[in-house]
Amino acid sequence: MDSPEVTFTLAYLVFAVCFVFTPTEFHSAGLTVQNLLSGWLGSEDAAFVPYHLRRTAATLLCHSLLPLGYYVGMCFAASEKQLYYPSQTPETWRAFLLLALMLPAIACTLIYYWSRDHWARHPLARTLALYALPRSGWQAVASSVNTEFRRIDKFATGVPGARVIVTDTWVMKVTTYRVHVAQQQDVRLTVTEAQQHELSPDSHLPVQLLTIRVASANPAVPAFHIRLNSTEYGELCEKLRAPIRSAANVVIHQSLGDLFLETFASLVEVNPAYSVPSSQDLEACIGCMQTRASVKLVKTCQEAAVGECQQCYCRPMWCLTCMGKWFASRQDPQRPDTWLASRVPCPPAARASASWTCAPALSPWALWLPPGRTGLWASSVLL
């Protein structure tokens, strides 16, 4: 392939992927179906259901035109292939052109079918019709959804391609090609998975993402899954009428402190062992008095008598959780991204002049966590 052909192919591939999955940069630049066709789509706040009836149809049509756009672009990028004369093009390109023409034709046929009877055959309208009263239609249910969506007390979160919206009556998930709807009074919600990520691309902090299955008591309403940050779980529960069940072995961290403690513990556990003298017994943690003391501060950055930090001669007096809570309590709550790189005074039981840092391998102090009765594990990442 010639250089212009390769360049155009790669550039168009990147554009097509970004246009379908719309990253933040494309949203900021207005390169989305919603923005490009805003005049025809109308306002989501004014009429939620009619807006998404048109949006899903327009999105399907625009995305189906992408292969045809590539073919047209290649007519100019690789003019020597004479792609603008289909009868003279290679068989492979003729097959691609046929596919590129079939996709928008199928999309238009499907959109025409949806729009019959004032969009009554659209998947969203069909779902709403399942909740309509005997002498009313799906439009009455759509009016109720529109009214509740306009209220400012609704719960809304998620990226544009997978938004989660919860109103007083409805649980909804808005995706690229579809809007899932279920009525709160007959749904069963179950947390099926909790994924832990070390860093969030937005806040550069650890984040836990929950996957919740929403299943309606009506078998005609298909079940769907929603995803949200664990820190939003409490707000979601306040808006829901039905309880949320959790699958086995799913632990939900609803606060930043919970996420920090898990990261704190994971960094401590990778360190080597510290042997507790046989003559020394580990007593209960002086912070909670519930568990056995399990951490010790050990200076590792320099020799014991060198540097600003001083050696801690205290026996292990804290459990890992309480030590982590102490560390977190001394941080700036407005700057959680600096917690692991900050310095704090030692707990009152240790020397007041000592301090901790969270630099790998070179930290002035190490935390030691015992695997059993005979030793403690060192963490050179936390001090």
From TrEMBL:
UniProt keyword Transmembrane helix, yes or no? yes
Top-level taxon of origin: Eukaryota
Question: Per its UniProt record, what InterPro entries does this chain match?
Answer: TM129 (IPR018801)
Q: Please tell me whether the keyword Hydrolase is annotated for this protein.
A: no
- MF term (GO), any: ubiquitin protein ligase activity
**PANTHER family (UniProt xref):** E3 UBIQUITIN-PROTEIN LIGASE TM129
| Family note | Belongs to the TMEM129 family.
Question: Per its record, how is this protein called by name?
Answer: Transmembrane protein 129, E3 ubiquitin ligase
Q: Which organism's genome codes for this protein?
A: Bos mutus grunniens (Wild yak)
Q: Which gene encodes it?
A: TMEM129
